[in-house]
Amino acid sequence: MHHTTAHRAARASTWLPVNALGDIEYLVKESEVLTGQAGRRFVIAGADRLPYRVHWHPLGFKVERLDAGGKVLDYRHLLPWEFERHSLAQALAYGQLFTASVPRDRSGRT
């Protein structure tokens, strides 16, 4: 297997499906607590694999659209009912929203 193909296959196995809109708040908080970094990256599956980073705060969400290198292209602050109409929520409804697993430390703990 070619190195690039193997690398992509390994990376693809770390993507976890997001199953419910209510899971997004938990997933963002989990990532922030365990990694110490703000927000969590999500991907809409498809030919383009559209990347986003979502930040949670008590009034709603900050959603950043990212380029392939992780640079912020655009962002929006959304109230919870506005987030339900965002393309991330639509992708979730069709089973096309994924997030990377949170990195584990060397001992195997999250």
Automatic annotation (TrEMBL):
UniProt superkingdom: Bacteria
Full protein name: Uncharacterized protein
